[in-house]
Design a protein that fits this description.
153 residues, Arc Repressor Mutant, subunit A
């Protein structure tokens, strides 16, 4: 008897052993979970990243926020426009350079971050559900090492 032909969405075995493929697939899954969680809260990942950076580091220029959050300059402007329209951030002229704006998180922005915390916790739990607490810690450590290695000159 001949084996059944593979399904159209079957992944060939060689690629299943490649860390790059596995990381890409894990990214797609995690990105979908985040998008669904943020979408249910009426925000986007960019909003969270910008608010979190402002809360942790304080007021910053748009350019600094873009670098700190790894968001493209044009996307930073659009996301900040959305956050400003919702009263979550405030733009003010930089006293040292009138061509620049300084962005500050507002109390409503801090409140929004607090509301997102359980959503993010839920996404992390859903993503890492098959792993034990020790495996989760190990995975975070290994991913951190990969990224730190990439950041080295």
């Amino acid at each position: 008897m001949n084996p059944a032909p593979p399904t159209a969405d079957a992944t060939f075995s060689r690629i299943l052993e490649m860390p790059t493929w596995l990381i890409t697939r894990a990214y797609a899954y995690s990105h979908r979970l985040l998008a669904e969680g943020f979408g249910a809260a009426g925000v986007r990942g960019y909003h969270f990243r910008l608010l979190a950076a402002l809360e942790e580091f304080g007021p910053a220029s748009q350019a600094d926020l873009g670098r700190r959050t790894s968001i493209d300059r044009s996307d930073v402007v659009a996301a900040l426009n959305e956050l400003a329209a919702r009263g979550l951030i405030q733009r003010s002229p930089d006293p040292d350079d009138r061509r620049r704006n300084v962005i500050t998180i507002m109390p409503a922005g801090t409140k929004q971050l607090r509301a997102l915390a359980p959503i993010l916790d839920g996404v992390q739990d859903q993503l890492l559900a098959p792993l034990s607490a020790a495996e989760r810690t190990q995975l975070v450590g290994l991913l951190t090492r990969l990224l730190e290695h990439d950041a080295q000159p």
